[in-house]
Each structure stands twice: as C-alpha cells, then as structure tokens.
Design goal:
- The protein is an alpha+beta fold.
- Among the domains are: about 350 residues, Beta-galactosidase, Chain A, domain 5 (Distorted Sandwich), CATH 2.70.98; about 80 residues, Sandwich (Immunoglobulin-like), CATH 2.60.40.1930.
- It contains 29 helices and 37 strands.
- Helix 8 packs parallel to helix 10 and helix 19 packs antiparallel against helix 20.
- It is globular and about 90 Å long.
- Pfam families: DUF5107 (PF17128).
- It comes from Microbacterium gilvum.
- This is DUF5107 domain-containing protein.
Length: about 1000
C-alpha cells in the first residue's frame, strides 16, 4: 500500500487516503511500460449524506448557478452526518509510469485522485475524506478531484452512481468508461478517463447523446479542484484581458482587477498593498468569487503551485471548448469556514473549470434529437517551469521576457534529441538539443539585445521537426467587451421578433425568475400567426402534456409557413407535429408529418428515426428498414438507429447480421444501455435506466422484451435517484392494455396501487400517458391520482395537479406527502390559506415525527402572521424533532429570542453543529448575533460549530430594495417554497 503523496501535510486526524498497489498482473504490465486499470474498493473516511426527503421539491423558482434550480424528479437531500465512518467506495484505479488516477463510479464517475508520480504532487486536489456540503443541485456535493457537470452545473447526478467498464487497447492504452442517463430529460452521457503508455496526459473522451425525441439544451463544465495557498496562481492565455461574472452581469480587467468586483474594491486594495488587485492569485480574493474568461482564442489554461514547483495544464480545442473559469470560496474566514465544511484537513481549494459548448454560466447550447456530440479534453501535470504561457497536448512553455529571454519547457512524453529554440524573425538566436521527459523540464535562454517586438518566437521541436509547442507574443484589441443587460418587460419591447428572441433566451438559459411565456404571449397578441412564437409555445405545451393545444399552435404556424411555400427552409414544425400526433394516437398522420420533416437535412435524422420507429412499432419492418437505409451513412451517429435495426433484423430471422451489428456498435459505445440489453450483456440495476430501455423496445414493437425490462425495473433497488417501482408497473399496465392483455394489465395496476410510493416522483410524457391510461381504466385509483398530480405540478399544470390530489384524498388515501402537496397548491395556486393550514395540520397528524412537514407548517404560520408566542408554543413540545434540521433550528432560535428565552437559544447554538447551505449563508450568524444581543453579551465571532464565519464584504443582493428579485441573481436565501402564482392558462 502507498500513500503516494508528498506535497500535502494532512492534519493528524484527517485519515490520509491510502492507495493500493497495483495487483500482480497490472504491476507486470506497468513494468513493461503499459498503462493499467483495475477495480478495487477504496476505504475513505466518509460523512454520509442523509436520507433524501420523501417530499417532492418544486424549486422551479430557485436560483441556482444563475439558472433554474429545479430539482424534480430528483429527491432532495437536506442533511449530512456530523460524524464520519470508514466506508469502502467502489473505485477504479488507472496508472502508468507517470501518473496515478482514481475514479469513483458511485459519485458520478468523478476523478477523485490525480497524482504526478514524477514530482510526488497531487495535481488535482486530493480530498482525504468524502465530506459533502449542501451545495449540489439535489443537496450533497463534495470538493476535490474532477467533477464532470452536465447537462447543467452542478451535475444533477453528482451524488448518484454511474455504470462503469474498463476498456483495454492492444497498444496498452486503458479507458475507464462511465455512463448515465441524466435524471431530467434522460439524455445519455459517456465519459472515458484514458491513460496511454508513455504519456502523462489524462484524456477525457466524451459522448453526449440526445436519445430523446425533442431538441434539448445542455452545457458541459469539467470542474477541476486544485489545492491552494498564498503561493498558488491560476494562469490563463495571454490574450485574456477581461473576465466576467455569471451571465456576464459584471466585468473586470484581468489579471489586475481595475474596478470593484463581487463587492471588493481591488484598485483601493492595491493602493494600500501593491499587487492586491491580481486576481490570478488565490491570496488576493477575499470573498466567494467566480470569473470566466472573455473572448480568448487560445486552447489552454491551468494552475501553478509556486511553493511545490508543480501544477497542471488543461487543453481542449477552443472551437468547442471556450469556457475557462475560476471559482473560490475566498481567502478569508468566511471562505475558510466553507472549506472546513468540505474537508477535515486538506485545506482550501479553487476550481479551475473547463467549459465545452459553453463559456459562461448559464450558457446553454442546443442538441438535436438523436444527435451525438463527441469531444476530448486533456489535462497533464507540469513540473517546476512556472505558470504556462503556451501549451499543446505535447508540451507547455513558460517564458520570462526582458533584454534576456528565458524559457522552460515541460513535455508529456519522452522526447529524445528534441530541439529548444529561440528565434527573432527568421534568425535563430539560441538553440539546444535536449532530452526531455515528463517531470524533467528543460530550459533555454537568449540575449535578445533589445526590444524585438512581436518577431520573437520560442519553440520546442521533436527530433523529427514537429512543433511540440511554440510561443509568440500576443497582440489583442484591448476594447472592453459587452456586458449583459436585463431585458425589458414585454410591454416595453416593440417588435414581435424581439419578443420571440427574448422568450427564447429565457427558455434556453433556464432563467429561474422570469418566464418566457409572457414574452411569447405578447408577441401573439400583436401577430397571432407568427410562426416562431407559435412553435415555441407549441413545444412548451407539448412538453407539459397539453397535446390538443400544442397541435392547434403548430397547425397555426404551418398554415402561415406553407401558405406560399409548401417546402419551407426549416421543417421543425412538421417534426413537432409528428410528435404531437403520435401522443394523440394518430399514428399514420404522425408518420406523414415525420416524412415531410425528413425533407430538411437539419431534421432528417430525428424525423427519419421517429418514422422508422413508428413503422416498426406497428409491424411494417421492411418499410422501417428502407427509412433506416436512407439515414445510415448520411446523418450523424445515433445508437437508437442501431438498436432499432437490430430488433427488426431479429424479427426477420437475420440473427447473425444483428449480432455483428451489435458487436461493432458496442465497440464504439460500450455502455449504451439498449445495445447491451439486446446483446445480452448486463446493465446497472437502475430502475430509471431499465424503464428507458423498455420504452425504446416498446416503440420498436418488441413488446415482450419491453415488459421484461419493466419487470426488472420493478425489482431494482431504490436509491437516491428516486423510486421508480410504481411508474414501472403503470407503464407495464399501459403496454399490456395496448396489446389486449387486459387481465395482466389490471394485475399490474393493482401492484402499482399497493407498492411503496415513497420518493416516487414520476416525470416525462411516457409516465404522464401511462398514468392517464391508468385513470381511464380505473378512475378511482387514488395512487394514480396522487402520482399524476406530482407530475403535473412539476410541469406547471398546477390547477389540474391540485384537482388530482384532492381526488386522491377524497378516495381515502391518507398520506403526508399527498396532504402536504395539496397544501402547497392551496396556498400557491388557489390562494386559500385557510385550507392550506388545515391540510398541513392533517399532514402533521399523518406524520408526527416528520421534521420537514412541521418545518413547512411553521413557515406557513410565519407567512400567515402567526405570532412568535403561538409558533413557539407549537414547537416546544417537539424541540428534539425541530433540532434535527438546521433551517428549523434557526427559526426556533429566533422564536426563543423573541419570547425572552435567549438562554435556551444560546444553549442550542453552542451545543449543536450546523451545516450551512449555499444560498443560506449568514442565517446562523444572524441568529448568533441576535442571541448575544438579547443576553446583553458583547458581539463575538461565532464558534466553529456554527459552520460559518463573517464576511468583510457585502455580496450582491439577490433582491432589490423594492422587493423584486434581481434579474441576474445567482442564488436566493430561500428555496421559494411558498410563492403566489397567477392562474395558469386553460388546459
């Protein structure tokens, strides 16, 4: 066993993470110069995340990372253990002669360890503990290593498992593939962590596949943590002159900040302490701060530890990977307190994040139905060369300029008899032949004898003359970039086009507090036939299950679009019409629409697949194959087409051809779930994944195979991603009814009604259709009413949701979740606070030991103006339950102080550990200050057990003085549990 760590002095009680030695076979391969990978559990001291809430969290108005904090259908986790345990985590280890990596499949497939064997340096921050804080989209999140964030930031599945396999190539390359279907749209992502023999480069090969029928939005940020201190410096390309905050709401010069940023007046600090405005140094940033570079044309960035003489480079093609970002909690007590929430002894870190198809947050791109986006990112450690001024995947160079120029090179492979060279114009002024290898830098200097402007070049060439890296001075326009502005309100916008585009921006960027609907509605008030706006609203209606209204809108758009031109330049309207008609059961009409959409190259792949799938689903296999033949080799790679062709070939008896097709496809996509099932290979025991496979098989007409997968889904264990058992059974019932097996369908519905529905949060149109079918078959199915209510509420159809919840209660379903949901709808939608209060009282009676429902009841009491004495009297008898939640405890302390019992409040504060949550900072300190004041005690810094420290700076306010939420807010102190809503449009 080996600690393999020399640059970090962990605290004595931190529990140094020990990495196992390679097994004998892998050790022998290492000795031969190969890269190796093996699976072996890693014992890590772990603070376990609490049980996820049994209540669905409708946080669509929650501001998170500048966009929507919607978490449904994921269960929300609200607590973390105060004491650690030793836990064995599934781990995949990768190693070659230069680097050592650890990937944790149970935590989203993140890289947990990145260790440079040549320098003994952890180039990625190694956290010796798993210590989550409540900063993730669904609650828990850990620092350290590399987190791969998609389809938004932070990764929704960051605390969920991924399916994993090890791929070994004949040349000794190893790749650890990790795969999941993200929990919202169910798109597929595979990322492969790869090491090659003889290379210090960590490659990340990524395949993002939109396996849905709809256009989706996404972003990708690889979030790298680096251990920092006063001598740590982040470096970015030399053409970076400015950096921007989230949504480009604020701007400052870089690396010397030339204006206040995040409330810090950097020029004023620099006047007192020269260099304090350099925000490329961690030591100079005193508050939680993000900055994203603006408009670089370069491909690299990274970080350098001057004390350790080591660092790392990230490289990716700028054409797809423009995003380069730093985040820090800040080098001040406030930030250090957050660091302590995330580690025991490994100290502060910064995040150096690389964005692909994105350069800001939020900044979402589109991915078409069936489209696969493929890209690669590279990281590698660097030795003591200094911050990098130019880099490629082969080498990096640091250049010190002056009358005498000095340069240091680091390479990612051994380069024998390489040439280091300095040129001025065509004249070589210095040249050395050198042997260079990872971890062993080489240097060159030259007396330039004066200012040679931009004619100087520093380069390293291989022995064969290939340029490994070349640096030349950077010339950029220093003009200040644009800054985002809040869009006007709809009534302030003149043109229909601008109304449409503003709504599109709000939708694409998932804006949390302003709806696109108001802009699109205003556009149609001015021009009822506007094609783009009608299609945008039709798409929105379709995704919420309002099929009839969606069809009306899309036909209105097509009426204008085809009035003079039957073959429009963009056929998206036909594709959308096909999707709607298919949901309405008008299969032949849908096929006609898909066929027309296929005339447009943009939609040929999506519409062609939908058409082929529909034909296969009703047994027209030869027609389906003809459609597939027209797509293969013409449009992009789509594993759905391969799976569909396999199903059809097997029905036709061409088993050998189908098997060969599968084998070749799995060589490319080794973890594609549908392909693996068709090939008889195992997939993860994940009910959501099984349901996805079943639905694909059903649409291809493979009914028995689909039902088998749904049976597997119903038997799969429940995990933090939710409980899919009831919906798997309702889906099975719908399929059985469709094929005339009514008795079996009734049995499946009976099982669904009796199943444990804890954390069963259905989502998506297939679940909606299945629940509608269940209620058509059995209108008095209380469980189906309760479940469809949750789905509809999440889809914004809240009055309809409330009606279903009311019906479930009328049918005798006594369930705290149901009653609480109905209470939310009563106050938020019906504005009936009295009824909401009554429903919360019934929910508390149904689950008296549930702290969440009591907390929500108390929050409603505060909104309704209940006095502190009344609220306190209600809570004192259940104080032990109150103290199980941080947020509830803080409210309780406030009530104690208000009612003259500050002594009890103080006792709680000094005897209990708190875990702050991102967006809730400052609440426990405010409670501490209020308690001390009530006791007549002098102000004092809070104890470490409160989990927070004071900030010397005031962060940008999320709400303006008039109470309106700042359009550019990146977080809010509350989760907006209660928010009055206007009437939704008619169904």
């Amino acid at each position: 066993m080996s600690a393999e760590r020399s640059d970090v002095d962990a605290a004595p009680d931190a529990g140094l993470l020990i990495l196992p030695d390679a097994p004998a076979d892998e050790a022998a391969a290492l000795a031969r110069g190969e890269a190796v990978a093996w699976r072996e559990p890693l014992t890590i001291r772990t603070y376990e995340a609490g049980e996820p809430s049994a209540y669905p969290m409708y946080l669509d108005r929650r501001v998170y990372q500048g966009s929507s904090g919607t978490v449904y259908p994921l269960p929300f986790t609200e607590s973390v253990a105060d004491e650690p345990t030793m836990r064995d985590w599934d781990a995949v280890h990768l190693e070659n002669e230069f680097v050592r990596l650890v990937v944790l499949p149970e935590l989203g497939g993140r890289i947990h360890v990145g260790y440079d064997k040549t320098t003994g340096h952890d180039f990625f921050y190694r956290n010796n503990v798993i210590k989550p804080a409540l900063v993730g989209l669904a609650g828990p999140w850990i620092s350290g290593g590399v987190e791969f964030n998609w389809p938004q930031h932070h990764r929704p599945a960051t605390f969920l498992p991924v399916d994993t396999t090890i791929e070994r190539d004949p040349d000794g390359t190893v790749t650890v593939w990790c795969h999941d279907h993200e929990p919202f749209a169910r798109m597929s992502a595979q990322h492969g962590v790869r090491l090659r023999p003889g290379s210090s480069v960590v490659e990340l090969a990524v395949r993002l596949h939109n396996r849905t029928d709809e256009r989706q939005t996404f972003l990708w940020w690889a979030n790298v943590a680096a251990r920092v201190h006063d001598d740590y410096q982040s470096f970015f390309p030399e053409d970076v002159r400015y950096v921007a905050d989230h949504a480009r709401r604020a701007l400052t010069a870089f690396p010397e900040a030339d204006r206040p940023y995040y409330g810090v007046d950097y020029p004023a600090l620099a006047a007192e302490r020269p260099g304090a405005d350099r925000i490329d140094w961690y030591r100079n940033i005193p508050v939680p701060t993000s900055y994203m570079i603006v408009d670089s044309e370069q491909d690299f960035f990274g970080g350098y530890d001057h004390a350790a003489g080591a660092g790392f480079v990230h490289w990716a093609e700028r054409r797809v990977s423009p995003g380069k970002k730093q985040w820090t909690w800040g080098n001040a007590p406030f930030g250090h307190a957050w660091d302590a929430q995330l580690t025991d002894g490994d100290g502060p870190y910064v995040e150096l994040m690389a964005g692909v198809y994105t350069d800001n947050q939020p900044d979402f791109s589109w991915i078409l139905p069936g489209e696969t986006k493929v890209f690669t990112q590279y990281w590698y450690p660097i030795p003591a060369i200094g911050p990098v001024h130019q880099a490629t995947p082969d080498a990096a160079v640091h250049v010190e300029r002056g009358a005498r120029l000095a340069a240091a090179f680091a390479t990612t492979r051994r380069q024998m008899r390489a040439v280091a060279r300095v040129r001025v114009g065509d004249r070589v002024v210095a040249e050395h032949t050198v042997d260079v290898a990872p971890g062993a830098p080489v240097r060159i200097d030259a007396d330039l004898g004066g200012d040679h402007g931009h004619d100087v070049a520093v380069e390293l060439l291989s022995h064969a003359g290939r340029v490994l890296v070349r640096w030349t001075p950077t010339v950029v326009d220093d003009a200040e970039p644009w800054v985002a502005e809040e869009p006007p309100l709809p009534e302030q916008i003149e043109s229909v086009e601008e109304l449409y585009l503003t709504g599109l921006h709000l939708s694409q960027y998932r804006h949390p507090t302003r709806s696109p609907t108001a802009y699109w509605t205003a556009a149609l008030e001015r021009d009822a036939g506007d094609v783009r706006t009608n299609l945008a609203l039709a798409d929105r209606d379709y995704r919420s299950g309002r099929y009839g209204r969606a069809l009306e809108r899309v036909e209105r758009a097509l009426a204008r679009l085809t009035r003079r031109n039957a073959n429009p330049v963009d056929a998206e309207a036909f594709h959308l019409k096909g999707l709607i008609l298919r949901r309405l059961g008008r299969t032949v009409d849908a096929e006609q629409a898909f066929g027309k959409a296929g005339w447009d190259g943009t939609w040929a792949a999506a519409a062609g697949f939908a058409l082929a799938q529909s034909l296969a689903g009703r047994g027209r296999d030869r027609a389906a194959l003809r459609v597939l033949d027209s797509l293969d080799g013409v449009v992009g790679h789509d594993t759905r087409r391969i799976a569909l062709r396999t199903v059809i070939l097997r029905r036709q008896g061409a088993h050998a051809q189908a098997d060969e097709l599968l084998r070749a496809a799995l060589d490319v996509d080794p973890l594609d779930a549908v392909l693996r099932v068709l090939a008889g290979r195992p997939i993860a025991h994940d009910a959501g994944l099984r349901i996805d496979v079943a639905l694909d098989l059903r649409r291809a007409g493979a009914v028995d195979e689909a039902l088998a997968e749904l049976a597997e889904a119903a038997a799969s264990p429940v995990h933090a991603g939710g409980n899919h058992l009831p919906i798997a059974l309702y889906l099975a019932a719908a399929i059985l009814d469709e094929v005339g097996r009514a008795a079996e369908a009734a049995e499946a519905r009976a099982r669904a009604q009796a199943a444990d529905a804890t954390r069963a949060f259905p989502s998506g149109l297939d679940a909606l259709d299945a629940l509608e079918a269940a209620l058509h078959a059995e209108p008095d199915d209380a469980r189906a009413h309760a479940l469809i209510g949750m789905l509809l509420y999440a889809h914004g159809r809240r009055r309809r949701a409330a009606a279903h919840w009311d019906r479930a209660a009328e049918l005798g379903l006594v369930d705290a979740v149901l009653l609480r949901n109905a209470a939310l709808a009563a106050t938020n939608v019906a504005h009936d606070d009295a009824r909401a209060w009554s429903l919360y009282a019934r929910a508390v009676s149904a689950a008296p030991a549930d702290a969440r429902v009591r907390y929500e009841q108390d929050q409603l009491a505060a909104r309704l103006g209940h006095g502190s004495a009344e609220r306190l009297a209600r809570l004192r008898p259940v104080e032990a339950l109150v103290l199980t939640r941080d947020d509830f405890t803080i409210e309780y302390i406030g009530l104690l102080v208000a009612e003259g019992d500050a002594e009890s409040a103080f006792r709680i504060l000094v005897s209990r550990a708190f875990h702050p949550w991102e967006g809730g900072e400052g609440r426990v300190i405010a409670a501490w200050d209020a308690t001390l004041a009530a006791l007549g005690m002098p102000p004092a810094d809070p104890p470490a057990s409160l989990g927070e420290a004071r900030s010397d700076y005031v962060a940008p306010a999320a709400r303006r003085e008039d109470g309106v939420t700042d359009y550019f807010a990146t977080s809010l102190p509350e989760l907006l549990l209660f928010a009055r809503e206007t009437d939704e449009p008619e169904e």
